Amino acid sequence: MKNRLYTSVALFTVALLLLIGCAGATKSGDRGTPQELPSDSGPPSSVSNSEEENQLSDEELLLLEDDSDWNDGPTEEIYTVPDPIEPFNRAMFTINDKLYLWIMIPVAKGYAKVVEPQIRTGVKNFFFNLGAPVRIVNNILQGKGRAAEAEIARFLYNSTVGVLGFGNPAKRHDGLNPDPEDLGQTLGVWGIGDGLYLYLPVLGPSTLRDTVGFVGDRYASPMGFVEPMELSLGLSGYNVLNTLSFRADDYKTLKDAALDPYASFRNAYIQLRQSKLRR
Amino acid sequence: MILKRWSVAITIWCLLVGTVGAGNASPTPMDFVKERIDQIITILNDPTYHTPGQKGSQRDRIWEVSQPMFDFKEISRRTVGPKWDLFSEAEKEQFTHVFSSFLGNTYIDKIQGEYHNEQIVYLKELVKEPLALVRTKLVRESVEIPIDYRLRRNDNQWKVYDILVENGVSLVQNYRVQFRSILEKEPPAELIRRLEQKLQEQNHALQ
After folding, report:
1. May I ask the CATH architecture of the domain B29-206?
2. Residue B135 to residue A242: CA distance in whole angstroms
3. How far is A23 from chain B (nearest CA, A)?
4. How much is the ipTM here?
5. Cβ contact (<8 Å) for A10 and B122?
6. Among chain B residues, CA nearest to A125
């Protein structure tokens, strides 16, 4: 009698497990604890029973948490950077706006029409690869040994197998794609605040700290050593143009979506830098 | 034997609780987002809309499909922030209406103009009831743009209430700082008026 009951219960369990589709756990009929299903991951199509407890990293928790900046209370905690020279910045913004809309974006679009995406991607990879020394130094300065090693490995890999960095074969390897670090972030990690918001000619949104970082990074960059100066600037300009060719419409998208474009770009920049600092 | 039976019972219990929990939420947050985006992409690729003069009806169709994806009331509440309490019920409604139309116009116009078979990769979903985060990335040529959808479950239905680009740039927060500076000096009606004006400009441009 007892045996039959046990059998039917076991059969029921097996049937249930099969129904749920976790075949791996079918043996659990006589185990003390239910087997844990593997947590998420895997291709998106296979994510069907994701009510499971997720493994959340701190960063993901922050992204998930909707109450991190405001929750019905009278106060809100949006990270802002002082903007004491707002009139100057706004004037700069207007000038840059014309520069982008009338010159840089049309040129980038024309360039994108003439030059194949594969070539532009190669150029992008090449300049990105040249930025490796800067990223390596900053990873070391931030004590991120693993990422520094990954940067070095990627630099060697892409410079050789990727033919002087025009290819990016390292992209396929998960461990070889650390988050890019710059001196602005390093200074931030060291506890130096943003100071004040700056809207720079040509370059666009920045802060005092990030501007110092930008200048400092030039000293670690091979691009900074190119002589004469005009060639160095020309190459940097070409890099900017090439990068822009991939995202030529983004500037206008952001601008059109805003009620106050200046405030929108300022906030987007600050949020972006904050998210990089967290990583 | 008794111990065995107990363990069986516990096993079943755990499984039942687990499946009931999952069964309620018929589509998971990721399935929900993916289903809607797939529909939008189908409309974007639909050749019947590629003939001249069909852009308007395509826009309407995209709006129809995408609207249920979002909780516009929650989006409005969050973009206004603490000052939401200063809005009268009528103003709240008005604001929600005009702001959602504004968002719809802005972004649908963009994707209509700029969608070129970008690939959307669904990375993972994180659930912490009643909240969820669906992590995706948009792949365009060789550029990858991370886009995360923040969802909240309301009346047993997942809805998007914020979108994060580039690993944490919140669109809601971006609008909030813009609206805040207006609301510091002006009454809610003025913000609504400005949005309406912007909406009119858009409608004019879309004609």
Report:
1. Roll (3.10)
2. 28
3. 13
4. 0.83
5. no
6. B142
